[in-house]
Amino acid sequence: MKPMGTIPAEFSHAPLRIAGESAEHWARVAGDTPLFVYDFGVVAARVARFRAAMSLRVKLHYAIKANPFAPLLDAIAPLVDGLDVASGGELAIALQRKSGGAISFAGPGKRDDELTAAIIAQATINLESEGEWNRTLALSDRLGLRPRVAVRVNPDFELRGSGMRMGGRATPFGVDADRAGALIARIRASDADWHGLHIFAGSQSLDTAALIEALTGALALAERLADQAGLSPPLVNLGGGFGIPYFPGDLPIDVMAIGQALGAAIEQSPLAGAGCSFATELGRWLVGECGVYLTRIVDRKQSRGETFLVTDGGMNHQLAASGNLGTVVKRNYPVAVASAESDAPTETVSVVGPLCTPLDRLADRVTLPVAHVGDLVAVFMAGAYGVSASPTAFLGHPAPRELLVGIAGG
Amino acid sequence: MKPMGTIPAEFSHAPLRIAGESAEHWARVAGDTPLFVYDFGVVAARVARFRAAMSLRVKLHYAIKANPFAPLLDAIAPLVDGLDVASGGELAIALQRKSGGAISFAGPGKRDDELTAAIIAQATINLESEGEWNRTLALSDRLGLRPRVAVRVNPDFELRGSGMRMGGRATPFGVDADRAGALIARIRASDADWHGLHIFAGSQSLDTAALIEALTGALALAERLADQAGLSPPLVNLGGGFGIPYFPGDLPIDVMAIGQALGAAIEQSPLAGAGCSFATELGRWLVGECGVYLTRIVDRKQSRGETFLVTDGGMNHQLAASGNLGTVVKRNYPVAVASAESDAPTETVSVVGPLCTPLDRLADRVTLPVAHVGDLVAVFMAGAYGVSASPTAFLGHPAPRELLVGIAGG
User: Fold this and answer.
1) How many helices (H) and strands (E) does chain A have?
2) Among A193, A198, A281, A381, which residue is least crowded by beta carbons within 10 Å?
């Protein structure tokens, strides 16, 4: 038997209720399984937690890449101060919800057509290199438009305890800190609108102290660069990296402590007095826990003494939960049998998807209430990097349904 | 500097030619980058190699999951004896190219609607469990049709040296060998058409001796089960698992040796005298080496002394090449700068895609001819489990183009 992660407190289970209704209810609403159900109440609670913890000076940006489902974007856009996009495709859907001034575009491989779209929309282009600046300038000249640009800095530190380290080393992201000053000077010597700095040290960290260190380290780096430039940046995007507890033993971060420490650092910062704004960009932390993936048991079988529940969806929709997206060791996301009562007898089973590959395993030897063909299995923590980060065409199965629920009045 | 795999001999390079044309030619034909170019000449050569090596008694099935691109299916279907499918979606596209009698459907999570489609099409259902047999029987009764079924057996041995082991252990695939006899008896006691056995021990093995052992082991297992049943199976699908050399140090398998050993074992088998047919199902080995992924360099940048070529496609189209599909350690697929001449000066670079994640790396610190923004990078071994096994919606980038080239007269 292997342990699994903890089911988010927002979901009452045994039996599972999502926004007050059963899993079967949502499967009927969607028309078929598998499906993702996103409870917007959880997202709104995360936004409220952020606002309660953070200084009013710290703006909240949503990183669309975590979950670009259109109804979710419609609902979250009014609650956040900006949208961060990572491609021309994401820019297009962001512009349907926010003006260009509230959108920033980061990403190491921006094509000319993507830069052109951002220049026209007056979105902030987070420049990843000197070469990207040269292309932006040339395209802006051709368009006769003034680009709005920020400099993405590859910080000289990393986010400790991070699932994805992006600073403190050679990376394709941003301009090394020791070259950022020269690029800022070149931008200021042009007629471009220099919008500030973007400093991102890593993602999915559950270490509160490390997050405080990274955010205050980004602030200190911004102060040094402002000193060099002799000018305060209009906006400093301090990054994000707030993790969520997927796995056994994981504990949530202390956002209140982060807010207090960052607020105190900002109070003392010369940038605060100079009228600089600050932002953090969050994706996973805002939406990851709102999602439940529901998949129906198609077969229940024994092999060499082990029991397998075979479901109608798997790694084709939930690549990360199957342990195939940037993880070395397969650990179990929290899962549940949706209809099971709390006193149901339990057994040890593996939950596997329908694909003809041993990689397609949603839960490895977990203890669950006894389940049968036709029952729904719920995989939690499915709100971020789920369907959009999965190979949905793999083996020719249908795409999953998606539902946004729990909207006040909706 | 890290090594990379060997470029398949069919592609002359420095500069690269695919089916006699340059990479830029194919990018123009496709209309944009990134794109997959599949050279059908390579596929036809693999089919010919198989036919030259194998006994005429061994049929060749193509496993669609390796590459379901419609023009490729159109071209390969006439060259193979059967198509193996893994979902209702794949069944539908297979039926456009072969009759149901030449199609077999394996997969541990077949839904009732998929079983129904297979029963109506008279495709062979490779039963994965006793429960699936019960559902097949009930659905057939309701339809008033006679189902054609084979029993997928979880063999009591594994394919050594296999990237994906599927036998010799508890798995969701097939019925354990010691229970297969009882299931065959139940099928024969019904009025279903028992079509034989499906025995699949693993995939992507480069160990010729292990492949011979697995194929002859499957034959021996089929003999034991035929003995128990007192009846020779009409068809024994012996599996496949033929690997291709992706990585440094990998060597191709010796198909001639496999054909000789398997042929000799079949000659001596009582099943051969009893009129049994045999098949192997191959996907990756037939099409994996035919594909070249072409992606354009959008940026060239330095970070802390390392050089990065940032391309317009990456793990969103080539998840396996980025090391994020079932591999623990990132090793380099063969890559090339498409336009480079043989005597070009070289340098050590990493090739990274456009996604905002450090996972998006197509080649890690390889030595390549010096390349510039606008040049095309070729990633070889891209014909199998490429676009269909990748998260194409990730971060909102466009889907890649696909081209089938090198068709005689086409």
Assistant:
1) 11, 21
2) A193
User: DSSP per residue over A53-106, as a string?
Assistant: HS-TTEEEEEEGGG---HHHHHHHGGGSSEEEESSHHHHHHHHTTS-GGGEEE-
* pTM, to two decimals: 0.96
Rounded mean pLDDT of B348-369?
A: 96
The sign one gets for the Cα dihedral B91, B262, B277, B43 is positive
pLDDT at B159: 85
Task: Answer yes or no: do A278 and A198 share one domain.
Answer: yes
Q: What is each CA distance from A336 to A130, A249, A310, in whole angstroms? A: 49, 18, 14
**Domain contains B357:** yes
Is residue B33 located within the same domain as residue B178? no
Q: Give the structural domain span for B186.
A: 68-282
Nearest by CB to residue A106, choosing from B109, B130, B356, is B356
The answer to whether B312 contacts A111, with C-beta atoms less than 8 Å apart, is: yes
Provide the number of structural domains found in chain A.
Answer: 2
Average pLDDT value for chain B: 95
> Hey, are the CB atoms on A325 and B328 less than 8 Å from each other?
no
Q: Residue A197 corresponds to which tokens in the numbers above?
A: 């700095």
Mean pLDDT of B44-53: 98
**Å between A104 CA and nearest CA of chain B:** 13
Chain A residue nearest residue B392, CA to CA: A391
- Check residue A98 and give its pLDDT: 98
Could you tell me if residue B46 is inside a domain? no
Question: Given this model, what pLDDT does residue A410 score?
Answer: 47
Q: Indicate which CATH number applies to the domain containing B171.
A: 3.20.20.10
Q: Do A314 and B109 touch (CB under 8 A)?
A: yes
